[in-house]
Design brief:
Number of helices of chain A: 15
Radius of gyration of chain B: 15 Å
Shape of chain B: globular
Helix content of chain A: 55-70%
Shape of chain A: globular
Number of strands of chain B: 10
Helix content of chain B: 10-25%
CATH architecture of chain B: 2-Layer Sandwich
Oligomer: heterodimer
Radius of gyration of chain A: 18 Å
Order of helices and strands of chain A: HHHHHHHHHHHHHHH
Largest interface: A-B, 36 and 33 residues
Number of domains of chain A: 1
Distance between the termini of chain B: 21 Å
Strand order of the largest sheet of chain B: 1-3-8-9-10
Order of helices and strands of chain B: EEEEEHEHEEEE
CATH class of chain B: Alpha Beta
Largest sheet of chain A: none
CATH topology of chain A: Hypothetical protein af1432
Number of helices of chain B: 2
Structural class of chain B: alpha+beta
Chain lengths: 282, 158
């Protein structure tokens, strides 16, 4: 069996997205949702409720006054924000683990993911682009394929890095040559399995090559740039380092310049620990 | 004792037992200085070249920038008795993404400002491992004064 087939075959055995996430996101997409229904779903997942409340009270999302219940959090933050908090609370615990092959220590992928989520939203603001729906979530999930390859499958990245060094090619291209698949595609297959919206699947799938996507959306290009800024800043960077292409087309679609890049790096650096240290690592 | 330097952080030491380390320098620059006579040294991890783009410095940390950070590091080791003519300076990091338009050239600029600040302070770089697209971990051993670079499980003296 090819390595690709082995990897995609193992996707099925990865713990499913907590069932409550699907239900909550569905409920939160309905503007007429009744709070009673939400509390009913969360009643059976106290860990999730705790994490949602931690996020709602964090410096990044939070307000001056303490939020004590999910109902209060929704009325303060709104349904869309709440939906992003639910996703963050759900993937946080699994994305904390170390990525063995990629030499990313525990919490590294999580810090990188949070950084990209924050930078994606911030870039939109800096450029006066309306923040696309699910921008934070799209940034948060873009590298989830690394979690699959590094934690569950524990791929041997030595031959991949060797190829990067010898041929001077991007890391994702070397992944494709050695494994028959790259972390971007693995991540997109997982998100499909989790029944997440196509817009999120698309961002994860094409975050290293937005110009190749048939749906070359603003959020996809924002995540590509935000990822590049976070990699440069060294937030949770692994041994793959900076061996990734910058899409020329993305820098034309998103009119950035060095000043925006630098100030986004400063902002992200200042905000990242407000969120990345919320959940304990086990 | 292992002393970890985060992103935009500085650690200054006159303790021979210290091993100072900073992880995953991307485009950031890491500078180690060491005076072998008095065993005073420091490691800084700067993210961006120039502080002047950020006038509101009350919110930002001087170690975030090469110009303010490296200058303060030098002052700190001189305060502990290090002498300029004995100081061994080593530089690592400044990597870049594969960027044909060279818009994201922060790594390159970090290194060029580092050289400028050192030159202004009459200091030469004894060794460097900069550029490319790899992420580097830098370690300064305060007992031996050796600076090493760790990448892909291998540790090499700089």
């Amino acid at each position: 069996m090819s390595l690709r087939a082995t990897i995609t075959g193992q996707l099925g055995s990865i713990s499913a997205m907590p069932v409550v996430v699907g239900k909550l996101r569905q409920l939160l997409s309905d503007p007429d949702v009744e709070f009673r229904e939400l509390s009913e779903v969360l009643k059976y997942d106290p860990g999730m409720t705790t994490n949602i409340l931690r996020l709602a009270n964090s410096a990044y999302f939070g307000f001056r006054t303490q939020v004590n219940t999910v109902t209060q959090a929704i009325s303060r933050l709104g349904l869309k924000r709440m939906s992003e908090l639910v996703m963050t609370a759900a993937v946080g615990p699994i994305m904390q683990r170390p990525l063995k092959g990629y030499e990313v220590p525990a919490g590294g992928l999580w810090r990188h993911s949070i950084a990209v989520a924050i930078a994606t939203e911030h870039l939109a603001g800096q450029l006066n682009i309306p923040v696309p729906e699910d921008a934070f979530t799209a940034g948060l999930l873009h590298d989830i394929g690394k979690m699959v390859l590094g934690t569950f499958i524990e791929v041997d990245t030595v031959p991949i890095m060797k190829l990067v060094d010898e041929k001077k090619i991007p890391f994702d291209q070397a992944e494709r040559e050695i494994l028959g698949i790259d972390h971007a595609e693995v991540g997109s297959l997982l998100l499909k399995k989790w029944n997440l919206p196509e817009s999120l699947v698309n961002v994860t799938r094409w975050h290293h090559a937005p110009h190749l996507s048939e749906e070359n959306t603003v959020v996809l290009n924002l995540v590509h740039i935000a990822d590049s800024i976070s990699l440069m800043s060294g937030i949770g960077t692994g041994q793959d380092g900076l061996a990734y292409n910058i899409s020329k087309e993305a820098t034309e679609i998103i009119p950035i310049n060095i000043k925006i890049i630098e100030s986004c790096a400063v902002y992200t650096m200042q905000k990242v620990s407000e969120l990345s240290e919320l959940f304990e690592t086990n | 004792m292992m002393q970890t330097v985060g992103i935009s952080d500085l650690y200054v030491s006159d303790n021979k037992d210290d091993i100072i380390v900073t992880y995953s320098l991307g485009s950031c620059i890491g500078v180690t200085v060491y005076d072998p006579v008095v065993h005073v040294g420091a490691l800084i991890h700067c993210m961006l070249p120039l502080s002047k783009m950020y006038p509101d410095k009350s919110n930002t940390n001087p170690y975030m920038f090469v110009d303010t950070g490296v200058t303060q590091m030098l002052q700190a080791v001189y305060d502990l008795g290090a002498k300029r003519d004995r100081l061994i300076v080593k530089v690592a990091g400044g990597a870049s993404l594969l960027d044909k338009k060279r818009m994201f050239r922060i790594g390159e600029r970090n290194f060029s400002v580092t050289r400028k600040v050192l030159w202004k302070n009459n200091l030469l770089i004894a060794a460097e491992d900069v550029g490319g697209s790899k992420s580097r971990t830098v370690i300064l051993n305060m007992d031996t004064g050796k600076t090493t670079i760790k990448n892909k499980g291998q540790e090499v003296e700089l």
